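**User:** My hope is that you can spare some time for a protein that puzzles me. As I understand it, each token names a local backbone shape. I would be glad if you read both lines and explained how they fit together. The protein I mean follows directly.
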Amino acid sequence: MYKITKTSSIMKRIRLLLWAILAGLTPLLHAQSIEGQVVSEKNEPLAGVNIWIKGTSKGTSTDIRGRFAVKPEKYPVTLVFSFLGYEKVEKTFPAPAKDIKIVMREAAESLDELVITASRTRERLRESPVTVERVPVKQIELATAPSFYDDLIKLRGVQMNTNSLTFQAVNTRGFATFANNRMLQIIDGIDNSSPALNFPLGNLVGISDLDVASVELLPGTSSALYGANAFNGLINIISKNPFEYHGLSFMLKTGVTRQEWAGVHPLYEAAVRYAGTLDKVAFKINFSYLEGTDWMAKDYRDFDIHPRNADRKGSRESNPSYDGLNIYGDEVATDIDLRFYNLGIIRVSRTGYEEVHLTDYKARSIKGDFSVYYRPKGKDTDLELIFLTRFGGGQTIYQGTNRYNLKDLLLKQTKVELRNRHYFIRAYHTSEDAGNSYDMRFAAINVNRLWKDDITWFTQYVRKYGQARMQGIDDYHAHLLARQTADSGRYVPGTRLYREAFEKVVSTAGFQEGAKFVDKTSLNHVEGNYDFRDVIPNGLIQVGGSFRQYSLRSDGTIFTDYDGPIHIRETGAYMQYIQKLFDKRMKLTASLRYDRQDRFRPNWSPRLAMVYFVDKEKQHGVRIAYQTGFRNPTTQDWYIGLDVGRASLVGAHPDNWERWKETLIDNQGQTFVLTGTDAYTNSFTLDSFLEFAETGDPSKLKVAEIIPLGPEKIHSTEIGYRGTLFEKFDLDIVAYQNTYNRFITQQVVMAIPRSYGNVRDSTRYNAIVKSAYKPYGVFTNMDVPVRSYGLDAQAGLRWKKYDFRLIYSYAKLDFDKEKYPDYMTFFNTPEHTFKFIVSGENILPRTGFNVSVTHLDKYLWEATFATDWVPARTTVDAMLYYRIPKYNGLIKVGGTNILGPDYVVAPGTGKVGSIYYLSATVMFK
């Protein structure tokens, strides 16, 4: 009995020990992951493959060697592998596994890739509630254009406006400008816009091609989740996580730019990326440098808008008030009353300088960043703490109201972020320094004034003109003699005196005597988001919020911040509910965002969307979405105070009106003062004033009634279809309609000083007779709605080794310009755009190609710099590549606009020529 009892006790202890061991091993077993590599049928590693656990949005992607690691919470588990250009793979694992190999076959373009931008959470592309375009790492590597950013033009619905060689402005769904403050661009969650300019400078101060993991683009409004700046579109650039993409990468590129006006010039670019891991810590360093010659601008057409010499427009010789488009300094013009001598009133402008003598056309871009990623629970978990610092800068040309040489520009950003699959919270700081940037128009104006002030120049002109006419010389030759006399002593480009004067002007801040502008504006931003994933079956609830503060600092050269920085604060909060129904064939999304700027009443931005799959296999999905959005006036809309030559710009905030004052001279030689208050409360509409000047009919004059500036709102509806019609053929089509209320615009008015008269009574003629007036650009809202609508369609076919894509976009503005001539909408978008892209992989061993053809109809470019029709154009880009698998190497030879000719994007910009390049990329583990 004793023995039996003892044996039973021993057996019990053994069983307890085994249970303890098994219990201890269980979490270890569950902690094990599925690890392996994804390759093509030719056994080449595939980087950037999307991998997720079926039935969830949890997943990862492969690194540059095609390797991956996924840690499921339980087994068995099914993993889904998806990659652009390859067939989807599903594989079930009953237990943890290592060193597995997944082989993916080439297929039609996949609609099953994971995206995060549309809903701020992971979801499959075909389930996105709104239109979204995604560029994966493979497509980035094989970009036809010299950079991934330039290659975004190949996306459906994208219009790329080339401002200069290193500054491309991406636009979607109309209202295209180089200063595109209707589109938000973020890199790793950081707003990449210039805080003072309120728009991104393309990728001039962005991210290196070597570090881009993917790009997601939303072509419609996204205010419901992203706030005021995501008004007409959003670009989300996601960099490579060093835990997944580690090793050393190099990229070298050389080539030439060719332009009819500038000739052939070299182009160089170099980039390096290094990323490493140390247990729970990973880090990466990036640096890139680009140098080339910018597109030269030599459009000398006469854009004199004053009617007095309308019949003489054409050239400097024919028109005494000639105003050449790319000639600056000739905007300084005045009416001279010679009726006492029976010579009438003449209008004369000073002799200007060509742009080619006001800039060196150097183009540079320098970018770098350093970041540390810390995973406190181990590298296989998703809890991550990130510190990042990034800088970018260089030299480029920007065309706004004037042409600006952005020289030695520097933008710095620092971010701290904590995130996992349920939440993120991030804070970042952006600061900029304009360096030695200057306004080319005022460089010319003030070089002129250095050698002879305006009063002296015009006095000499009038005297010589009068003498010549009294001597019987005809009007034409009298003007030539007068200009020759007044121009005596003029600094000639290329001479020592000119160079010294030019350097003095461009190094002097402010536009009274110089051309340099100061910009040390900064931005602080904090935001967070939390996903309640497990509260609702097949559903998700998100909440989030943000706070932002601008600190405007230009020392009075851009803003009216004469007595210190100006602060603007914005706050916002949002909530989103997502629910899947009917065996997950229907997905409903509802979002609501609250935003407030410290100068306005709150804004509410709702979004409602539905996606429904008509088949059980989810191959055919239809979607409908209704969204609202808003955008606040920009920092410049509020507080700019800037004389731009032809006119002065004054921000709309009432506090700003009296800060702006400028002293001018009437045709009697007397000085007068104009203020911002005069511009907003004592002015005529420009069209009516010009009509009065031409006809002399006082009834033509109309008082400018300027609406107080406030937020602009949009109501947008889109209906779309995504699906696979048959094997290897995909179709994605969307139609949209947008209505803009209180459209923010710039209105040009003719202001007169209160000291001379009131526009609402007969005293106004005192100012007109004495030429005491000046054009002003004021900021206001339209009192009529602006509508636009369009369609974007893309068809993709994979046939053998070849990919074919056909893209068509239609965009139409519904606004009666003739009825409202004083309003500018800046639509600037062709009605019809066609893109055809064909690419091939392994057409020869390790060799492939990519060719794209883009055609844009002619369109009207409307801007404060100049308004004119832009001719239709067709461009061809091409690239041939060769892979070197041993070194993860890629050699590319290609070019953009390879067949020419040069083309115009907007009046006044340099014609865009051709780029031809050779690049080599190598990646070492």
The chain has five domains: 1-30, 32-107, 133-296+361-388+396-437+518-634+712-743+782-924, 307-358+440-506, 654-708+745-779. The two ends are 68 Å apart (CA to CA). Confidence is low (pLDDT under 50) at residues 1-8, 13-31.
